[in-house]
Recover the amino acids of this structure.
């Protein structure tokens, strides 16, 4: 890119939710039905350069050095429109984004992508905004992106309107050396993306019961993280994942993100914990890959067992990651 | 058996629920949380001989010509105790029961077994009771046994107390030639039996939402059966099965009856219907085997596809079955 005034490069990490976000009270603002909680993932990140220019007549987007498809460009443009409006600029932007992991496979590329995009877009304008506000802006692009702005273990407070729906760290990444061993069971792009999925949440007769009881689970997970109490964490994390997928599969139309191999990994992880004492539990976002959350001391054994379970499983391993941050220009 | 006054032999068929029974308002009386609806299965039945005798000092039980284990004997004795009390006899019974299908694999051996046992036990005493009362008595042994007393397509009215919680035919077996193609994915005895499972239903925060909305689904399924409208039937049957399993897997402890192969069959059946127009839908009781309900004209194709899906799938095929009936003494 040419030497320019309005340019910045940012990196943000993916996150895995321990308490899930599913369904919005307000789809346009992505105000969620409930508060959620996640851990950023050190190994999975998006890096995004934004250059605003008065000479440009349209936004452009490359992903992993290739021109983006129409759907991705449209979603980024919509987000840039919101940022232009809220930040008070009429310039268009050139956006170059890259991920170090496959998109659309349920490891939340939109979270890291929209967090990095938001930070780079804001910084490129030379604007300084507090982290809390950055989180609200990232949320407008992808709900879970709000959680990729702060570092470590993060709570996204549902809030009542735009300014009060943001994420904040509840513990730094160094607080607890949990490991997320992701069993990649499919790299296929999911058929129903999260944004469309969120809109179906209220068609399940189970969604209100999930939402009405989530604060109790959130409180328990926060306590378990604060006390580094894995056995307290494990049951709630699995239960909350099961609750979200129960809502999904009882929506109209029914959404099944699980593949048969996902179920095999879930049942194996639970068996390893309950019958053999391995400190591991499973959780799945809106995709088929199974995040096996474990304590660092048991990570090698969990990884070995996952590899032995099926030749169709690929493994990605990650500890807790930082929040979004700026990089020197490339 | 010796020539005796108090002897009778009865047969009852298994049934597959289109609207599920899960959870009791009263565990001792097996008064269900909700009304349910099922189809009796012609191909799967239990045949039971009961001989009451004043000379016996204890009940005895054989299943498939072998002396029954302690747990099965205990459950049958408990049921005979209730029958003795309600029918006014103090005699003990010799019970010989046989099934033409594997027990405990989720094709409801307890339904046909307790329906046949109840009819034989009552008839052996020379008592004549109306079908409605027989259904209440069978319910005391196994909730779904109440539905194996009447024939064809059967509704079990939840009722408010013992006498009003019984099943009745809503259509005879000849009304609609549906076929249940059961994909047996495991013959292993399930780890958590239905009776224990029912007691966990209220530990799921989703159970009340399932129960509160079931009458609407029941009404739709009855209408679909009356009109022989398969496309109206299919979506509700799958949704109600998903709802029950959503409750199960969000109970404490979580109950997963699905195996990975169960999920593969479910997703295939749904795909065959939605993408290729085959008139088939899936439903699972408290076990891993997948009941593929289809119209007779598509049964061959469904069976062929199931067989091709995995060499680990065995197939049992059944049309609608009759209610419980008496047989000549063996």
């Amino acid at each position: 890119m040419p030497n320019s005034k309005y340019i910045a490069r940012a990196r943000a990490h993916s996150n895995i939710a321990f308490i899930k976000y599913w369904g919005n009270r307000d789809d346009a603002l992505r105000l969620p039905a409930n508060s959620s909680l996640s851990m950023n993932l050190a190994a999975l990140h998006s890096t995004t350069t934004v250059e605003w220019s008065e000479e440009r007549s349209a936004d452009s987007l490359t992903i992993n050095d290739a021109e983006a498809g129409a759907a991705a460009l449209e979603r980024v443009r919509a987000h840039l429109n919101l940022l232009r409006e809220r930040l008070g600029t009429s310039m268009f932007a050139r956006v170059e984004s890259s991920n170090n992991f496959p998109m659309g496979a349920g490891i939340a590329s939109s979270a890291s992508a929209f967090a990095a995009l938001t930070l780079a877009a804001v910084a490129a304008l030379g604007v300084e905004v507090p982290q809390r506000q950055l989180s609200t802006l990232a949320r407008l692009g992808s709900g879970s992106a709000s959680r990729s702005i702060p570092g470590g273990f993060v709570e996204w407070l549902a809030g009542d309107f735009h300014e009060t729906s943001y994420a904040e760290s509840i513990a730094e990444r160094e607080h607890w050396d949990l490991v997320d061993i992701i069993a990649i069971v499919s790299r296929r792009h999911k058929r129903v993306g999260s944004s469309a999925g969120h809109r179906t949440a209220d068609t399940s007769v189970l969604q209100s019961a999930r939402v009405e009881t989530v604060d109790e689970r959130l409180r328990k997970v926060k306590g378990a993280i604060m006390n580094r109490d894995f056995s307290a964490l494990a049951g709630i994390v699995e239960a909350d994942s099961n609750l979200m997928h129960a809502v999904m599969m009882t929506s109209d139309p029914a959404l099944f993100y699980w593949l048969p191999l996902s179920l095999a990994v879930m049942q194996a992880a639970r068996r390893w914990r309950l019958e053999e004492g391995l400190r591991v539990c499973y959780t799945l976002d809106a995709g088929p890959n199974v995040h096996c959350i474990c304590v660092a001391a048991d990570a090698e054994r969990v990884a070995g067992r996952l590899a032995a379970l099926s030749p169709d499983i690929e493994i990605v391993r990650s500890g807790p990651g930082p929040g979004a941050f700026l990089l020197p220009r490339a």
